[in-house]
Write a structure and sequence with these properties.
This protein has about 375 residues and is α/β, with parallel strands linked by helices. The chain is built from 11 helices and 7 strands. The strands form 2 sheets. The chain has a 5-stranded mixed β-sheet with strand order 5-4-3-6-7. Strands 1-2 form a two-stranded antiparallel ribbon.
Length: about 375
Amino acid sequence: MLASDKVDAIITCKLASHCLCGGEIQLKEDTQRHQVYELPEIKLHVTEYQWEKGCCVKCRRSQTACLPEGVTFGMTGPKLTGFMSHLISRYHLSRRELRDFLKEHFNFTLSLGTVFNKQKIVNAALEAPVLELLGTVKESPFVNMDETGHCRDGRKEWMWGFISSTVAFFSVATSRGKKALKLLMGDFKNIVISDRYAAYNCFDSAHRQICWAHLKRDFTRVSEKKEGVVSRIGRNLLCCEAELFKVWHEFKQNKINRDELLRQVDPLRRRVGELLEQGSYTDPALKIARFCKNLLEDFNALWTFLTLEEIEPTNNHAERSLRPLVIWRKKYFGTRSNYGSEFVARSASIIMTCKLQSKNCFEFLSLVLKHHFSNSTAPPLFAIG
């Protein structure tokens, strides 16, 4: 419970002076506490600005007073504008649902066109802060990378995600290829954690960690092949993967140290290499040979997590960060304009970064809009709170 000095009101519930038996009740020094949370009366704060008007007695030119600095010519202030945007981007309300919500809870009516216009304002205000996030991501010692489909007016596009331990950056691109990846992260020189998708081969194998969760799926497919030799290799690789994660979880739970981790994984590493070597000599028509050869070429990238701190053997961090965007896509089926795609990516970047840093996204969004309306530069997210 909250401390008594933190609550808004204290009501003392009095005892009767006498018991039912007729005896007098003697009060104890301590009391029993019970706290009830309740919504206050919800009402928008409306400010009317009245401009003085006049005329110059000399030149006869009409004069009108100016609005105070930071006050927008629009009908919503920075907090309400940010709140509307947050309900759409973070809580996935449709624009019509947002309009109904504002009408029901605030008795505030506005058109769908106004909702669209407010989104454009938020999109413009987030441009600079999100670009700063991209620069911060590139300075990180390691970055989880992943991509997922995005529909743009019926056309297939891609949502790229680049997530460090404290910062997330998302961007919609027309391509899933190396060209789009290099345009966004081509100058990144540290550790890349990703799946085996070919576009990530533009990064040096010595600076990569290939996701073992994706490898488990690949090994499972190999184990389900009809050819006995191939199936056996797949099952053995799955056994190695299961043993690897068993040791890794013991390390994460501080049951063993890193030296013991390396000692126990070393025979598994040799065994995986032997199995991939065997698979590379199978019939090329079975495709297992090419799969094994490709893994052998990037073999060292399977084990980066063993020697570098904070590197995980999976790309789950990126997968979890992209999941809200996947849910959004399934609900809204994509975007129909460039600004719409930008709004989705920029909002997701701010929301996920605030989550990673345990900061209040709505407060940051309101601050960004306040500076935007004042034509000033908002402080970077790392400087907030």
